[in-house]
Amino acid sequence: MPVRPETEDALLPADVANMAAVALGDRAAFAALYRDLAPRLRGFLLTRTRGDRTQTDELVQETMLIVWKRASSYDPAKASVNTWVFTIARNRFIDRCRKALRPAPDPDDPSFVPAPETAPDDSLEQRRRAQKLHSALAQLPPDQRAVLEESYFQGKAQSAVAADMGVPLGTVKSRARLAMNRLRATLAEES
Amino acid sequence: MIDHHVPDSMLLDHVAGTLPMVADVLVATHLALCPRCRGEVAMMEDAAGAMLADVEPVAADDDALLANLLGRLDDPLPQDTVGPAPFATAPPEALLPKPLRCVVGPSKDLVWSTSLPAVGKRVPLDLDLAGVPATLERVFPGRSVPSHGHEGVELTLVLAGGYTDGPGHFVRGDVQVVGPETVHSLNIDDDGEDCVLLSVRSAGRVPDGLKARIAKWLGAI
Questions:
Q1: pLDDT at B143
Q2: Is residue A180 part of a domain?
Q3: Which of A25, A26, B19, B208 has its CA 20 to 30 A from that of A156?
């Protein structure tokens, strides 16, 4: 059964519950997920493709098809649904530009160096982190948030962000650094 | 223990997906070896996900698009524009982590040619449509790469062995960033092991127009 957004106060967020159902092949849950995600993905990808509507529509459809196919690999203890879908859409966009799959570290590769202590495998903790990050981002000074937005959504290298804002590259780098420091500090705070 | 990391600003460009392919491969290879930087990347991606929640939705004919997609759910993923990496199925090995191996192939098949007699060998890599020059370097233990400068910025990732450059000692997984004004030399550890490096440069055999573009993103480090 698809979970509607109004049940957001329930123990499990609607999108996480829907992902679990999608992993079991629930098409109605997938439709609910699509209606929630697709309009925002479209907003993100329209910026990224510089307003190319055809390419954006194709990317949204491909991203959602990958979400359907790989739903069982989604781990709510590792990332929010938004984060997981962002990485799929971004990688799909890059893959199309390069006409090749983007190489990524593989935890099953013998050369992969695992973290010394395993992170707590706890989806509740992950959701707390996501909420903290969301409110910390909302409180970032606008010039710091703008650097992240231009970088993530407009797909600009930091040198291009600097040119765009008419500030030296060092200023952009320090704004990004300050933003990351703030997020890191927020995550380290006791809840 | 990795002491020399990819600069945070370059990790952010990696998360945004704005690095040229060859630099992206260098970063992904470092990430395979460096839990610290994977943690940073995870946080940057979490921030991007949180910001995606705030993106202004853009409406379309979602009834039709959804119906179309529901009819295609059993289709294979589209392969028309995207093929697998050239060496996606190269078997696991100790030297090359997967992100690098899947684009250059198994290390046993690399064809090394002499770069400096009695000092080292190299394999030029042609990974990038943008023509960013990259090489794998193999330098013999106890040797030195003589003092040299760079026209642009050079990124070096250590894959095996180690070397000393000034106060810094670099081992597997470490990344060194050398700016255009720096003249330096590498003293390879005399421990019997060849030192293998992935080197990416912003200048060299690069046409002028590209050079400016590449210098621009490498300048962003």
A1: 94
A2: yes
A3: B208
Round to whole Å and give the CA distance between B150 and B162: 21
Mean pLDDT of chain B: 86
Q: At what angle do helices B35-52 and A169-188 cross, to 10 degrees?
A: 90
Sign of the dihedral through C-alpha A148, A149, A151, A153: positive
Residue B130: predicted pLDDT: 62
Mutate to test the interface with B, among A86, A117, A131, A186 (most CBs of B within 10 A): A86
In a mutational test of the A interface, the residue from B14, B81, B107, B153 whose CB has the highest number of chain A CBs within 10 Å is: B81
Spatial distance between the Cα atoms of A40 and B10, rounded to a whole number of angstroms = 26
Residue A28 has a pLDDT of 96
Number of separate domains in chain A: 2
Torsion of CA A58, A59, A61, A63, to 10 degrees: 160
Which residue ranges form the domains of chain B, and what is each CATH number?
A: 1-221 (2.60.120.10)
Residue span of the structural domain in which A189 resides: 121-191
Q: Please give the structure tokens belonging to residue B136.
A: 């794998």
For residue B171, which phi and psi values (nearest 5 degrees)? -130, 180
Question: CA–CA separation, B163 vs A140, rounded Å?
Answer: 41
Least confident of B74-78, B161-165, B186-190: B74-78
0.90 surpassed by complex ipTM: no
Question: Which tens digit of pLDDT belongs to each residue from B174-199?
Answer: 999 988 777 888 999 999 999 999 99
